[in-house]
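ok here's DNA polymerase III subunit alpha:
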Amino acid sequence: MMYFFLDYKKDYKNSSRKKILFNWFVCNSELEIIDFALNFKESNILKFQKSLKKSKYLIGHNIFFLLKYIISYISKVNYNVRKKYIIDTATSSITIWKRYSMPNIQILYKWLEQISDKKDKYENQILNILCLSKYFFRLVLLKRIFLTDLNNLSYINQIIKKINVISNTTDRNYLKLNFKSTKQREIKENLKHKMWSKYFNIHNHSNYSILNSTIEIKTLLKKVRKYKMEAVGLTDLGNLMGTVKFLKYIKNYNKNFNLNIKPIIGCEFYLSTKNKKNIYSQILIAKNKIGYYNLIKLCSLSSLKLEFDEYPVITKNMIKSYSSGLIALSGDLNSEISNLILNNQIKESIKQMKWWLKVFKQDFYLEIFRHGEKYENKVNRIILKLAKKYSVDYIIQNNVFYLNKKDHKSLRILLSIKYGEKIDDNLIPEKHYINTSEYYLKSKDKIYNLFSDLPLGLKNLRKLKKKISRYNIKEIRNLPKYYFHDFKIDNNVKQPYEYFENKLLKKITYNHAKTKYKFLKGDLIKRLNFELRIIEKINYPGYFLIISELVKEAKKKGILVGPGRGSVVGSVVAYAIGLTKIDPIKYNLLFERFLTKSRISLPDIDIDFDDKGREEIIKLVLKKYGRTKVSQIITYGTLGAKSAIRDTARVLDFPFNEINRLSKLIPNLTLKQLFKSSNNQLKKILNIKDYEKVLVLKKQKKINVCFKKVIKVAMQIEGNIKNTGIHACGILISPYDIIEKIPINYSKAYDCLVTQYDKKNIEQIGLLKIDFLGLRTLSIIKKALKIINKKTNQIKDLNKISLEDKETIKLFKSGKTIGIFQYESFGMQKSLKKLIPNSFEDLIIMNALYRPGPFKNLNNFISIKNGKLYKSYSLQELEEYLKETNGIIVYQEQVMLISQYISNFNKTKADTLRHAISKKNKFLLTSMKTSFIEGGIKKGHLKKILEDIWFNWQNFASYAFNKSHSASYTFLSFQAAFLKSHFPAEYMTSVLSNNMQNIKEISILIRECKKMGLTLACPNINLSSYKFRLRKKRIIYGLSAIKGIGKASIKNLIKHRKKKKFLSILDIVKRVNLRLVNKKVLENLAYAGAFDEFKNTHRAQYFYKEYGSNIIEKFLQFGSKYQLLIKNRKHTLLKKIKDIEIKEPKMTKCKKWSILEKIKKEKEVLGFYISNHPLEKMKSKINKITNLTITKFKSKLELKKKRIICGVVTNIELRKSRRQRDYIVCTIEDASDNINFFLYGKMYSKYKHIVTFKQVLLITLIDNKILSIKKF
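and the structure:
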């Protein structure tokens, strides 16, 4: 903070009138002279203005008069002092100084005459104004003046000492140094800046301190680079989640910007004391790799010791055990020592300090913080005394939870979200860092202003930095050892363990290859040897053996294992030992897509299991390798656009329902993309429906004040980590206890260890990650096989079915692929009908083409296949690689092979190219493009052709499948299609059972069943199971697919039904648990037709009201009383149930519901019509006008003839176009299918009154264009 002191002197010499000479200087709070001038000459006008502008306090004798005089005296001075604090030391004596007064001019001069030479006018004037400043600061010290920016007494004492030094006439050289020699002053300033440029911050918290910091690691390092800090720390709260990312970014920054930033890894632990009443913050940082591993152990053990619910705590005994390689810091106001000082327990604080000194010796540091907290000065004062008395080094530090001062509000929002508080509440008082706005990353100048009186603290900080060594946490690949069973290891052979793993893999591979291929010929042997050499070179035999054994164990336990996924399907070794089911030789699959000699990252061997089987296999792995060596992998949940808006609205106490409604309009974009992009930019990336929603949002932001404020705050917190979860498929297996190398958490919910590093960072530690995926399609196939083989064992091994099966190929040709993995979308069905696939290979290509990038070539491929277009090649030599795909690049492998041919890329470089294109790595792509084109030109190819090939690659490869993956998934789809074509009822029963919770999907599947001619029965209280079941060629509806009926209710019903089937609703209420099977459950069962089998009753009776209650309510009241009486029967004298007087209610006779009313209620609880359809009654009338069903209409769209269809309106959406014009999206359905239509412009105006919900319509169309609409 700058202070501007102004003084003057009257001069009558050499002038007919009096003249005023001005003396002024500007200083900071430590009285370091920033600017100085003896008088107000022309050359000093700009200097004066500049100094005046940057000062906050203007101080002087008669300063108001002086300022006015300056304006009138020199017209060039333009000054504005409205926002300044002006203190007149002459006139403010009574109001400000109270009984203390500033000395007048005469007293000042009298004092000056005693201490200085009268002849030296220059020094007199200097000393005059210094004297003024000295008295001013003394009054501040005596608390007669209070300045909000200067309230630290120790600072002011230092200032007065400096003034005294300057005022001492015996040291005239000091005066000359400060005021006469600008050059020397500059040297001093440079030395000061050089010294303080060595400052760096350790206490930095990133957004991995979940909901306690707004800082992203990347932005932290940008700021560190800007401030030119030589080191930076990361000390997140209770975890090490950001460590790998932190080290990776620093490494990249140092490399890309030629820097030498030293990373400091630490953690702010929660320390639990002996009495376990309190927890304190405790910072530990690693000075070497041993310390880093000890940090990991402490962090991991703390998560297993959740004594304070959310807080993972450590104890001093734990710290003592793992103190090697660590540096301990005393911490801020939340630390143990500071807390004891605040509670005036000085002796205890000394005792605890001695404990830390005993354990860490010279690696324990006291810390000084200056955040403007209420009791900070008291703690700092005592800590400095302790440091001096006990010779303990102290360091200066700043605790950082947000990057910029203005981000203080964002942190308050995050904390409010975390603790479920409103922003206006007294928010979490123990979280001290929300009380001031000083917890941001400060520049070195600001640190100097805060701590310039403590240079020793900076010196010690630099000493601490020297103790910290650089180390690499990346390890050599650490794979668990394979446990040998039948294979004997010769102990006399002195070879590493890997030697025997490799020997066993070779043996198993060749043995199984003989079974698979019958004859091992030259090319096959070459391929096997080539693959085995690569696998051996990168030390992967154990990996293959481990996966192979897990697959075998899964099959033994009856778990269905998938045919393989990803690039591993291209390995003949994997096929031979049973990891995959597709023959790579037969389908020309590329091993190099999976593995090359120089591949650095671990290739994944992902295994698919049925849903339940995945859980079983994880238990098997835990048992085999031990719970301490197996872990699941963490995921981080972030605040997305919608959740950021909703949470912000809740915290700011704004109308939540309205904000929530608007948040639902947000498409799949970030808030910054949404509100900072122009409408034209958004038009290009959004569909019409989403774009319309965006226009509504932007309009609301302009007119809705609450929404505008919410958006502003939500944009600041969006992207912050909100919670953690467990990866859906990743499993980590380690050869040693995981906490030796990776920090872990413990999940109570899953009773397992979970890594603190996510899947992206696991590989850098060198551990084995395996993806065990639960695939619903495998669950469907498993259930279908169980139903099929229940009576007769018709399918022994689905993997042995013929891939040329005519019925299955026919199903794909017809496009009837609803319920078939990867082929069930409407667009895919349509494309299959056009393609007319003749082979399994056609289906592999179709699977690969139906992706966002390659999709643009789909129609060309179909036209070439059907003889409508001719094949063409950019280079005729490419026919060898593109023949199977009709001259079109479809697979990633084709890119690799063509680059090898055209530009002489080796296999490794070809794989690097594929990786660069798929990941859109711009830096790598630029260099690869140059290499590709130069190599192609050398081989005699034209540059233009090469550039065209490159352009096509860039457009498609980022979305393309590798052929191996496409082949394996097509194989799985073919198996599903085989079951659907040969065992339709069994297969569809299984598909329905595996989609129980998705009513929209169920309705599509039910419609498909009807098209297939399958019989579907309504729910039946005595026949229906939890899921769908097949009984006498009828698919019985599953109870859990009925709305409002939970698992517990169904279990209770089935439990009692097993003993004896239900005879009536009276029988039900007597036997079941009425808390589980309540009114809502019984009503929905009745609506769905589950009680239709009860004799002499119909659905309307259950809802007929008599005396205010319907029959179900009466039966429930009876059931409650009945069950209570039965329960208490033992305590009564009555022995027989008939002796209990309780009147049974009877079914009241009433009129049956009409078919329309009956199926309407049915649809409410089932989501569709099952027993009948609204158009069934009108069928004969409709057939007179048209016999075209919606299904037939869809199949004949391309004929472009006038057609009439009839359907009932089941859904209507009113929308707005980009030009803000209304239009309708209408869904109509008949018994066969449903279809959507759009009504725009004139058609909307003409027919909007006709198109109403549940209205039956006759629509005349050509193709998909409506000509007219009539009511039926």
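+1. The mean pLDDT is 82.
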